[in-house]
Amino acid sequence: MPGSRQKFATQVNSKVIAQVRTLARKEGRQLQVLVDEALVDLIEKRKRTRPRAHVMAAYQASVEKYGPLYQKLAE
Known about the structure:
mainly alpha; 3 helices
């Protein structure tokens, strides 16, 4: 991801960071590149797991209107 870089400090489980360092060495990549990639992946994953507000509103309206029918169909 292009852009300026900013330093930050955090603590990571020692086993996790050892595995990431090993992975970086095996891939011939810098640790910071893998951290960037992991953070971007996390952000994208979280964006996809939250339903959009208008989708949830439509779902709620449908359940309110057709809830008893849905229940009978499920039986």
